[in-house]
Amino acid sequence: MSGLTGAPATGDAARPKIEVVGLAKRYADVDAAQPAVLERIDLTVAENEFVSLVGRSGCGKTTLLNIIAGLIAPSAGEVRVDGKAVTGPGGGKGMVFQQQALFPWLTALQNVEFGARTRALSPAARRREAEQLIDLVGLAGYAERYPAALSGGMQQRVAIARALALDPQILLMDEPFGALDEITRIDMQHELLRVWSSRRKTVVFVTHSISEALMLSDRVAVMRAHPGVIAAEFRIDLPRPRQRTHAEIVALHDRIWRHLN
Amino acid sequence: MTTLATLLRHPQVQGLSFLAALVLGWEVAADVGVLRPYQFPAPSRVVEAVWEIATSGFPEGVKLTTHGLVTLGRILQGFLLAITLAIPLGLLIGWFPVLDRMTLPVITFARSVATLSLLPLAIVWFGTGELSKVLLIAYGCFWVMLGNVVAGVKYVDPVLIRAARTMDASGLVLFRRVVLPAALPRILTGARVSLGVGFMVIVGAEMIGTIRGLGALIMEARTFYRADISLAGIAALGLLGFGFAIGLGALERKLLPWHRGLEDVRR
């Protein structure tokens, strides 16, 4: 794996899936004196690892995710997936957005089918796959509803099913539960872990909730703003589902909080 | 009594009851002489005028159905010509920012020109026949439609485009499967507004070179001091427009079933 050159030593024994190397992002039209949105970002995510990016609003975590997705080009450095530089979106990188990003003119099932569009499946097999995914995210019986007739939590379930329909190796999630109430949010975290355990993916998960990151992730990267950098990384070697009150979780919460300030 | 109370709570009944009150008040005012009959003929007189145009015609021999069909034909020709041109052009302009920047001043200017101010020029260019009338209506409809189609494509929620791109949609697939359906509500709104413009322009367009058409009827009646005939023509034109608004509304609900999703939840 020549792609490892320059990657930080994270001590990962597993094969790196995503490598972010020397990444920086500046907006040219903004005052040159302004600090960069992102600077010197190095991050390696192992295959099937669940990594969260945590930080305050404006620390560049969503920008970093968009660059990994190939939706935004970096000013310097690069992102590699399986050792190959990312040049654009698609190609096995599924994404779930914070805002409502379902196609409102398609039913839940049709939205998921859209995700499976480019897979080499017969129309019947594609429909079956979409139906299975709808079941997997717990929406059996809601397949024919339009997004406007679904609650916020249900819409995000469809969005997750749609991203999974690509059969992606990588799942990028941009504060997917950020707009949900706390109770729904906790439900959705359990759901995501359940889905993830049946369809193993490499996940990069952006959130501004420390406890959400601690409940879900193998590793948490803490970001700081002006310029946006990764200030620290924490590994969480606890089995899931985790208890919010577990002594190690509480201690990590405290340490991450200190890194944010 | 309770049935009357329930009836009065019905939104359609409420809407009609106000209209009925207006007409009744007008009738009474005309009968007692508050309104001068040659200026504001009573509604009953207008109904008689409708009967007169429907049976013997006004001018003699040109009946209400003829006026209505001629007007309808002109509006539909102009409207269809306008939207057939405006939809493909608008999609192109909305999709390519450079075309949008190039055409924005022209569209803004052309939209601000009152269509009927072009009437004298239309006569010089196309004569006083059918072509002038249809083209004037088309002009009015075209710019309104074009503006709406451009806006519909241009203001598609960017997150939908980004989401589609993460699912390997680009180029024509992106346009056909995401941009077009996302722009459709705005395009249909454009069609509705544009048809309304057609109904406004028609009266002016029929001012010259014809005695057929509801606009011609309304203008012609004036020279004979027949306000009742004018009002009858206005009512007929209004009803025609009303019918089209209902028809387009139904078409919209059929084409955009997902737009009603929210209502289902609230019910």
Short description:
Chain A is 32% helix and 23% strand. Chain A has 261 residues and is an alpha/beta fold.
Describe, in plain words, how this protein is organized in 3D:
- The complex is a heterodimer of chains A (261) and B (267).
- Chain A is an alpha/beta fold.
- Chain A has two domains: 13-92 and 169-261, P-loop containing nucleotide triphosphate hydrolases (Rossmann fold, 3-Layer(aba) Sandwich), CATH 3.40.50.300; 99-167, no CATH class.
- Chain A contains seven helices and ten strands.
- Chain A has helices at 61-69, 108-115, 123-136, 152-165, 182-198, 210-216, 247-260, and strands at residues 16-25, 38-46, 50-55, 76-81, 84-85, 93-96, 170-174, 202-207, 219-224, 229-235.
- Chain A is globular.
- Chain B is mostly helical.
- Chain B has helices at residues 2-9, 11-31, 43-55, 64-95, 97-112, 119-126, 130-154, 158-166, 171-205, 214-223, 227-255, 261-266.
- In chain B, helix 3 (43-55) crosses helix 11 (227-255), helix 5 packs across helix 7 (130-154) and helix 9 (171-205) packs antiparallel against helix 11.
- Chain B is flat.
- The A-B interface holds A 69, 71, 88-91, 93-95, 97, 99-107, 114-115, 117-118, 145-149, 162-163, 166, 172 and B 159-160, 162-170, 177-178, 181-182, 184, 256-259, 261-262, 264-265.
How would a crystallographer describe the biggest sheet of chain A? Answer: 6 strands, mixed
N-to-C span of chain A: 37 Å
Mean pLDDT of chain B, to the nearest integer, reads 90
Strand content of chain A: 15-25%
Give the largest interface: A-B, 32 and 24 residues
CATH level-3 fold name of the largest domain in chain B: MetI-like fold
Overall helicity of chain B: over 70%
Overall mean pLDDT of chain A: 90
Helix proportion of chain A: 25-40%
Question: N-to-C SSE series of chain A?
Answer: EEEHEEEHHHEHEHEEH
What structural class do you assign from the helix and strand content of chain A? alpha/beta
Which CATH architecture of the largest domain in chain B would you pick?
A: Orthogonal Bundle
- Alpha carbon gyration radius of chain A: 18 Å
CATH class of the largest domain in chain A: Alpha Beta
* Biggest sheet character of chain B: none
Which term fits the overall shape of chain B? flat
